[in-house]
Amino acid sequence: MNLFSAKDSTPSVKLEDYSLLHTDIHSHLIPGIDDGSPDMETTLQMLREFKSLGFKKIITSPHVVSDGYNNTTATILAGRDKVRAALAQNNIDIEFDAIAEYYLDETITEKITNKDLLTFGKNYILVELSYQQKQSGTFDLIYKLQVAGYRVVLAHPERYPYYYENDFATYYNLKDRGIYLQVNIASLSGKYGKGAKYTAERMIDEKMVDFIGSDLHRLTQFENLRDCLRLKHMSKILTYEKLLNKTL
Ligand SMILES: [Fe+2]
């Protein structure tokens, strides 16, 4: 089915919600363990919002940062189980699981050795990098993860200025290394600036995006998430047949 006319890339489908996506893989919904939801009531309200937007499954991803949010597999899974219990008690019907958004630094090597990494789908692992500056060991650490059998998903590649201000070819380098790219939905609205917006749009145009994620931290961000449904590139990525969110 050709959803796009030959003259331009305006999609012929109008999206009412995110049901085509099925699963979100990036958010901060476990109460009180990172800079996301502060309490269970907020978490439940956020999950009601996700459900009303057509999501069927939420795989939340609390930060794991060695000198910041010192979460462990145990704290994350305990938090997940409490949220699951609260969902059941409140009759909110949405599938809920938890992974982590691992900040990529040397501490990941110990986690590889101990097989202490939370994954989703086909052994995917979500990692983020510094926003400030390029770290010299990044590709070595990614390679170590890949050798250990993990499929590395890079969170919001369009938000790292040292990549997008350098050269778009950088993103092809990431793809060539077998790294999966997860674009943030809100980048398309310009929420993170023009560079991130342009880069996200171009990655969608060039079919480089493997996953998209909401990266939701707060209830107030749902308005933006809803508004993003009207964007041309949102329709384009949601109807992209190789988008992997749909496989989860
Ligand atoms: Fe995040």
Largest sheet, spatial ordering of strands: 3-5-6-7-8-9
Amino- and carboxy-terminal Cα gap = 23 Å
The average pLDDT score comes to: 94
Oligomerization status of the protein chains: single chain
How many strands, what sense, and barrel or not for the largest sheet?
6 strands, parallel
**Which consecutive residue ranges, at least 5 long each, have pLDDT under 50?**
1-8
What proportion of the residues is helical, as a percent range?
A: 25-40%
What Rg is obtained from the alpha carbons, in whole angstroms? 18 Å
At the first level of CATH, what is the class?
Alpha Beta
Bound molecules: fe (ii) ion
Please state the overall shape, judged from the principal axes of the Cα atoms. globular
Total strands: 9
CATH topology: TIM Barrel
How would you characterize the overall build of this protein?
This protein is an alpha/beta fold and about 250 residues long. It has a single domain, classed as TIM Barrel (Alpha-Beta Barrel), CATH 3.20.20.140. It contains nine helices and nine strands. The chain has helices spanning about 40-50, 75-90, 105-115, 140-145, 160-165, 170-175, 195-205, 220-225, 230-240, and strands spanning about 25, 55-60, 65, 95-100, 100-105, 125-130, 150-155, 180-185, 210-215. It has a six-stranded parallel β-sheet. The longest helix is centred in the N-terminal third of the chain and has 17 residues, at about 75-90. The chain is globular. The relative contact order is 0.16. Fe (ii) ion binds near residues 26, 28, 101 and 215. Fe (ii) ion binds near residues 28 and 101.
